[in-house]
TrEMBL record, chain A:
<dbReference type="InterPro" id="IPR027193">
    <property type="entry name" value="Noc4"/>
</dbReference>
<keyword id="KW-0812">Transmembrane</keyword>
<feature type="transmembrane region" description="Helical">
    <location>
        <begin position="31"/>
        <end position="54"/>
    </location>
</feature>
<keyword id="KW-0472">Membrane</keyword>
<dbReference type="InterPro" id="IPR005612">
    <property type="entry name" value="CCAAT-binding_factor"/>
</dbReference>
<comment type="similarity">
    <text>Belongs to the CBF/MAK21 family.</text>
</comment>
<keyword id="KW-1133">Transmembrane helix</keyword>
<dbReference type="GO" id="GO:0032040">
    <property type="term" value="C:small-subunit processome"/>
</dbReference>
<feature type="transmembrane region" description="Helical">
    <location>
        <begin position="85"/>
        <end position="107"/>
    </location>
</feature>
UniProtKB/TrEMBL annotation, chain B:
<dbReference type="InterPro" id="IPR007276">
    <property type="entry name" value="Nop14"/>
</dbReference>
<keyword id="KW-0690">Ribosome biogenesis</keyword>
<feature type="compositionally biased region" description="Basic and acidic residues">
    <location>
        <begin position="297"/>
        <end position="315"/>
    </location>
</feature>
<feature type="compositionally biased region" description="Acidic residues">
    <location>
        <begin position="365"/>
        <end position="374"/>
    </location>
</feature>
<keyword id="KW-0539">Nucleus</keyword>
<feature type="compositionally biased region" description="Acidic residues">
    <location>
        <begin position="316"/>
        <end position="357"/>
    </location>
</feature>
<dbReference type="Pfam" id="PF04147">
    <property type="entry name" value="Nop14"/>
</dbReference>
<keyword id="KW-0698">rRNA processing</keyword>
<dbReference type="GO" id="GO:0030692">
    <property type="term" value="C:Noc4p-Nop14p complex"/>
</dbReference>
């Protein structure tokens, strides 16, 4: 009923400037559930208020995790509220009483979506997934399946399935993480390679990774001091003069 | 010795092989030793126990070991003199101190004035000096001299004489000789004086001719340096020609080059995998050692060969080369009488002839240069294989020759960018290149100290200049194309400085982007210069490294560009596709995965579609599924579709697209689309090996198969499309379940007894090493304490003994005295009684 801009503004401040001062916060229940149902960024923002209601005011929300699961789409790694969303998702998934199939579905979906994510999001999501594996050892079959079939022609996981229990995530493996091991960013590749070995017991602290921005990444790399600088040994023959230069095929210098 | 003085420590059990130290003791000997020692130490102390007098040695420097005895003596002497100085003066009125020199009084020496010191110098004039003989005959004089002395001995042996006699005889002889010499000299002196006098008389008579003759006399006195001498000396100092390396055959050269390339490639692979970057040693620089030493990047082979000119090595020539560079080189080339020169030229020519990448020399820089030149030549003239290349190289490029002749030969490195720009302003490309080349040559780091810093600056200027050329309304990309060569050379010379300035540029660009995003919330793709810089990065540095100081930031920056910048115009699309090409080029060897690249290509395909509900795929930032910037690449005009032909997109279009007509714009759109298809095809080929290849390409495939209006496209476009789709679809799907790397099993705890080596019997072995050490220390302390107590006790006993013996001595003395006294008293008494008795009798 509100315009989207206003909706977002309200939801951003709701959890810490409105809800604590209300006599009966449960009154906001309807508003929040409706907002949660809208989808997109508004859903992400409504999640925060909803969490307070569930946590402190005994709100029962049916199919909460299913809804959360359906919120995961390629844009979550690109939106502005990424840090807030993953902070809450971390909270929701920290319970050790969650069924393994659900966590596996989450892992698989997050990994699948990570294939389109920028490096700053990848640096956050890889430790996040590691933490999920640590909390739910039953999901480690995704990493280590010694007795499985030798070769499969299809990934058993069904991305399009709305229901986490039907997604067959537990029969799959996280090939996406394996692909990310050859990511161009060295830190991402290293973070993905962690899953090759058996995980350590301690959870990674992802709170400082949540707010990571591309500019920070860049600054970190630019400030690194190099001992010596390797050079290209193939001699230059002009701007587009390399062997099999893609540019020479498609661009001209005029 | 005496068995009664030996104490045997009996042992309960004899153990074979064990040595015991203390099985036999000599109590008598050890006791006497102890007593002797105490006599020397304790007794002395005891005797001096109540005395406070101390002996002080005040001799100057007696205990100072740093001073040599001579110095010590000298200082003592001066001290003594100083002490005596004041006192004596009062009474010593007329006695001056006598000055001496080597123990002889100076006064005496003065009396004999010049007789002593003037007799040694002139006696050997005319004969060969010892030095001279040594120099000429290799020091045979020593032998000769020996012989002489032995001869003398022989003579003396004939008449055996006593030593004293001999010495006396010698003294007499020498005295006699001295006397004779003196008389001779005196007579000579007299004669010369006389001559002088006569001469003065005559001088007036022979007015003018005199000085010449005088000079002649003097010249005669100095022996003229022999011609033989001169030659010998010269030969001694002459530089010896060192053997130069043998000229290699072409096969050897090719083999060497191949080995070098293989090594570099292996290096690159190692860096790509990112293993032990630090552990491995530094990457071998591309310049060979002799390259740095000579440092001239000449068009011809620039190795200096040892050459002779008129029988002399022409070293000076080479030094001049440093100053004048080119000129000298050309002159020598024209001379052509030198065999070495010709050979080298032929060699360089043959290099040109071969394929530029495969041939080569150990001297990479000159190699590069020739290759670069070859590339240029290709553009201006078809390169033909000539027989007489040595001339060919110069003739091929008349323009360049002309430019060469116009420009001055030396350039200082410009201090600021403005001067650098003014230096290049108004010159043709060829001239600019030559100017840069000459700047490099004249200011090679091996020529002067500050040159390195200057040339490092030059790299920055050149980059800036290139950026400026790229941002012009009509970007001079051809010029940039050429300027990349000197840039590469400079980069090879100063990798650190080059990487620093490149990083500086990237940092600035990234910060600008950041600021714009913060202020406006959105950003646009940067201008052409940044794109060119990014391209140059891929030319100068290896992009396949796991981590690289320049390339990794460039990666992140490009990723930011593709994800953060809005695509609102066709130019943006072209720039974006350019960056995609860059990404592909960067990862072409390492095959690293770039999600942004796929996202962007998907987005570009998306905006080429007519507006519709996107189904089955999602485009991500910066593209939106719905919005105003859709259909950027959509072409509806049928005629334009038909008339389209694939052509390369000119880069300058990003600055002046507005002037183009509608048809042209449409054609550009189609070219972009074709480019996009091609990139997708290349991506597919590149990422084939990734385990989740199909998931990555899934959205692209759906878009291509379900949403593309293929039939509307011209045939050529359909070709592009189908080749891309084919590349995507003919990949086999197979998934192997993941298995963790096996880790080492942790060993089980075992209960077998721990076996410890027993090193010393009778010692407690338990406990850790530290504990054992502590115990040992305690034990040693105990033992020492016992020993000390025993010693103190023995000291006390000894002292007591001493005191007792003293007392006894004293008592004995007293007794003796008392006895004496009593005795004397008794005798006195006796005498007195005897006297008395006598009296009584009387």
């Amino acid at each position: 009923q509100l315009p989207p801009g206003l909706y977002k503004k309200v939801l951003v401040i709701l959890h810490d400037s409105v809800l604590p001062y209300m006599n009966e916060p449960t009154l906001m229940m309807d508003f929040l559930t409706v907002a949660y149902g809208i989808g997109g960024a508004i859903s992400l923002l409504a999640l925060n208020g909803l969490f307070i209601l569930i946590h402190q005011h005994n709100l029962e929300y049916p199919d909460f995790y299913k809804k959360l699961y359906s919120l995961l789409d390629p844009s979550i790694y690109h939106v502005k509220y990424r840090a807030r969303f993953f902070h809450l998702t971390d909270l929701f998934l920290s319970s050790s009483h969650l069924p393994a199939y659900l966590v596996a579905a989450f892992i698989k979906r997050l990994a699948r979506l990570a294939l389109t994510a920028p490096p700053e999001a990848l640096l956050m999501i890889l430790p996040f997934i590691c933490n999920l594996f640590r909390r739910h050892p039953a999901c480690k079959v995704l990493l280590h399946r010694p007795a499985g079939p030798a070769d499969m022609s299809e990934d058993p996981y069904v991305m399009e399935e709305e229901e986490p229990s039907e997604s067959r995530a537990l029969q799959s493996s996280v090939w996406e993480i394996q692909s990310l091991q050859s990511h161009y960013h060295p830190d991402v590749a290293k973070a993905a390679a962690v899953l090759n070995q058996s995980l350590s017991e301690m959870e990674d602290d992802i709170s400082r990774l949540l707010e990571l921005s591309a500019a920070e990444l860049f600054d970190k790399e630019v400030k690194k001091k190099a001992v010596d600088v390797p050079l290209e040994f193939e001699p230059v023959r002009g701007l587009f003069g390399k062997k099999n230069d893609i540019f020479a095929e498609h661009f001209s210098l005029d | 010795s005496n068995p009664f003085e030996v104490k045997v420590n009996r042992q309960k059990f004899d153990i074979l092989g064990r040595k015991t130290k203390n099985d036999v003791g000599l109590p008598g000997v050890s006791r006497s030793k102890a007593i002797k020692k105490r006599n020397q130490t304790l007794l002395k102390e005891y005797k001096e126990r109540e005395k406070t007098n101390v002996f002080k040695d005040k001799r100057f420097g007696e205990y100072n070991t740093k001073i040599t005895p001579e110095e010590k003596m000298i200082r003592r002497f001066t001290l003594e003199r100083q002490q005596n100085y004041g006192k004596k003066n009062i009474y010593n009125l007329n006695e001056d101190e006598e000055l001496t020199h080597y123990g002889q009084s100076l006064a005496e020496i003065e009396k004999l004035n010049d007789i002593v010191d003037s007799d040694s110098d002139t006696e050997e004039r005319g004969t060969l000096s010892a030095e001279l003989t040594a120099a000429h005959f290799g020091g045979g004089g020593g032998l000769l001299r020996k012989k002489v002395s032995s001869e003398q001995q022989d003579e003396e042996e004939e008449k055996p004489k006593s030593r004293k006699e001999l010495i006396e005889e010698m003294i007499a002889k020498s005295k006699q000789e001295k006397q004779e010499r003196q008389t001779r000299r005196e007579s000579a002196l007299e004669l010369t004086e006389k001559l002088d006098k006569d001469w003065k008389e005559i001088q007036t008579l022979i007015a003018r001719k005199a000085p010449k003759s005088e000079r002649k006399d003097k010249e005669v006195e100095k022996p003229k340096p022999d011609e033989y001498d001169i030659i010998v000396r010269e030969l001694g100092f002459e530089m010896k020609a060192k053997p130069s390396e043998k000229l290699k055959t072409e096969e050897e050269l090719a083999k060497e080059e191949q080995a070098r390339l293989q090594k570099l490639e292996a290096d690159r692979l190692r860096r790509m995998r990112g293993i032990d970057e630090e552990a491995n040693q530094k990457r071998p620089s591309h310049m060979s050692a002799d390259d740095l030493a000579d440092g001239f990047i000449l068009d011809k082979d620039d190795r200096r060969l040892l050459s002779y000119k008129d029988g002399k090595i022409n070293i000076e020539n080479e030094e001049e080369k440093g100053e004048e560079g080119e000129e000298e080189e050309e002159e020598e080339g024209e001379e052509g009488d030198n065999e070495d020169e010709e050979e080298s030229q032929e060699e360089s020519a043959s290099e040109d002839e071969e394929d530029a990448a495969a041939d080569g020399h150990s001297d990479l820089e000159s190699d590069l240069e020739s290759e670069g030149e070859a590339a240029e030549n290709k553009e201006e003239k078809k390169h033909e294989a000539n027989e007489n290349e040595s001339q060919n190289v110069e003739k091929l490029d008349p323009k360049r020759e002309a430019a060469k002749s116009e420009l001055p030969y030396t350039f200082a490195v410009p201090e600021s960018y403005e001067t650098f720009k003014s230096l290049l302003a108004g010159r043709t490309i060829e001239q600019q290149l030559i100017i840069l080349e000459r700047i490099q040559k004249c200011n090679h780091p091996s020529l002067a100290v500050g040159n390195k810093a200057k040339l490092e600056k030059l790299f920055g200027f050149l980059l800036e200049y290139i950026g400026e050329l790229a941002t012009l309304d009509l970007p001079e990309l051809r010029t940039i194309d050429k300027l990349v060569l000197p840039l590469y050379n400079l980069c090879q010379m100063f990798p650190e400085a080059a990487s620093d300035s490149m990083r500086f540029i990237l940092r600035d660009a990234a910060h600008d982007l950041e600021e714009v995003i913060e202020v406006k919330g959105r950003a646009t793709l940067p201008a052409l210069d940044t794109l060119i810089y990014l391209k140059i990065v891929s030319l100068l540095f290896p992009t396949s490294d796991f981590w690289h100081p320049v390339v990794t930031p460039a990666f992140i920056y490009m990723s930011q560009l593709l994800t953060k910048c809005r695509i609102t115009t066709l130019q943006d699309v072209i720039k974006g596709l350019f960056i995609c090409c860059l990404f592909l080029e960067y990862v072409s060897l390492s095959r690293r995965f770039v999600p942004e690249l796929i996202n962007f290509l998907l987005g570009v395909l998306h905006i080429s579609l007519p507006k519709s509900q996107a189904q089955g795929y999602t485009v991500v930032h910066p593209f939106t599924p719905v919005g105003k910037n859709l259909e950027l690449l959509l072409v509806c005009d049928k005629e334009d579709l038909k008339s389209w032909e694939k052509q390369n997109v000119p880069l300058s279009i990003v600055t002046r697209l507005k002037e183009a007509s509608r048809t042209e714009i449409n054609h550009t759109r189609l070219s972009c689309l074709a480019l996009c298809f091609d990139l997708i095809k290349k991506c597919a080929a590149l990422y084939e090996s990734l385990p989740s290849f199909h998931e990555i390409m899934h959205p692209v495939r759906i878009l291509l198969t379900k949403h593309m209006p293929v039939n509307e496209y011209p045939e050529k476009m359909q070709e592009w499309y189908h080749s891309a789709l084919k590349e995507l679809e003919n990949k086999v799907k197979h998934y192997i379940p993941l298995v963790c790397e096996k880790k080492k099993p942790v060993p089980l705890k075992q209960y077998t007894p721990k076996i410890v080596k027993v090193l010393e019997f009778g010692r407690k072995q338990a406990g850790s090493k530290k504990e054992q050490e502590r115990k040992q220390l305690i034990q040693r302390h105990k033992r020492e304490l016992k020993g000390a107590i025993r010693e103190i006790r023995k000291d006390n006993q000894y002292l007591a003994r001493m005191q007792l013996s003293e007392i006894m001595e004293r008592d004995a003395a007293r007794k003796r005295k008392v006895k004496e006294l009593l005795g004397s008293l008794a005798t006195q008494e006796g005498e007195w009684k005897a006297m008395k008795r006598k009296k009584w009798k009387n």
